[in-house]
Amino acid sequence: MMSREHVRDSLWVLPALSVVGALGAGAVLSAANLDAGSPLAFQGTPDDARTLLIGIAGTMVTVIALLLGLTVVALQLSSTQYSPRLLRNFLRDRPNQLVLSACVATFAYSTAGLYTVGVSGGSRTTEFPRLAVTGAIVLLFVSLGMLVFFADHLGHSIQIDSIMAVVERNTLAVIRGGLLEGGGTGSPVAATALAVPAPRSGYVQVVRVERMLAAARGGGLRVRLRPRPGEHVVAGTTLLWIWPATTARPAATATVPEALVHAVHIGRERTFDQDAAFGFRQLTDMACKALSPAVNDPYTAVQAIERLSVLFRVLATRPLGCHVDRDPGGAEVTVPGWTFGEYLATMSGLIRRYGAAEPTVVTALLRLLSTCAAVDGPDPGRPAAIEEQARLLVEDAEREVRQPADLREVRAAAAAVRAGLDR
């Protein structure tokens, strides 16, 4: 069964549905009887109608090939210039899917019309659904309009600001709505805990905590997931641990491990369902790629850091870490999560190691830390994590930057971070 994210990422789902809709619309319009003098009726002979439908179908084949070619160019550009993890953002782009769907629907509608227009029972006839032929003309103009819209949309969507804005929007949606609330600790894994293996290799995409808690409640168990949402797990390795919630052994637990495993969805790629770190990783990749010797574009890296500042500002107000759900009867489910310090060390650390020699990049990272320091958040380890990253940034910049004058702004930004932490 396909998940909602998989459906959004698939380029064929909407076009397939549009074909079904076009065939249904054609059947309905073919049943309508209009006089030849009606303004909505096609003014021509059956042969004219068949020629028109053949021409529309041929035109749509060319248009569809053009659309797919332009899409491939955009995918190649985003993959090589920015990050391969951005490909799915273009595949799940709804305007692209709608334009392709409109053209495919027009092709299917026109081709299906050739079976009915001018032919009845295998013999030629002068009667044909004139309104349905008019519908093909309308779909043709709609498709051509969508083609112009697609060219404009594609030109804007491959701009660096638009790409970063999409990543920022998707990640904010996860932080505000899909991220499992942390702040708990959970019970430590008992020495007698049963290790349940992962049924397949892949990335943990979705953890259905309510289902896990229901299964744990039925078996009187405590459950702790080993990987965090978004992490890779190998088939046969430990996916989760289970152990009795009380010293008394549960009466029946034979089906509980299977139910718990089914509550953890493992897929072939990372998604935005519960994995906010995936969006952070995309922006970090763009910054690192821009700082590579092959690209050498520090300003793009600064733009990525500014987008990360927005995400970290919102993330700092959320309770992070382990998500724990408990039942009054003693059942418990613990899902590990990222702490603020881990987010900061991973994302800021990657950019710091690539851009330590560029003062503008270091200063942008210190401004990010100042933004985080100015927020009151529930994570008690946040100030220490910010202070640690600020210290590493200054130390690396002082080692890599040769000109003392270039370090003035870096030291000033570091002082602003310390002042923010003091406040």
From TrEMBL:
Organism superkingdom: Bacteria
TM region positions: 12-32, 52-77, 98-119, 131-151
Keywords, comma-separated and alphabetical: Membrane, Transmembrane, Transmembrane helix
Pfam families, per database record: DUF2254
Protein name, UniProt field: DUF2254 domain-containing protein
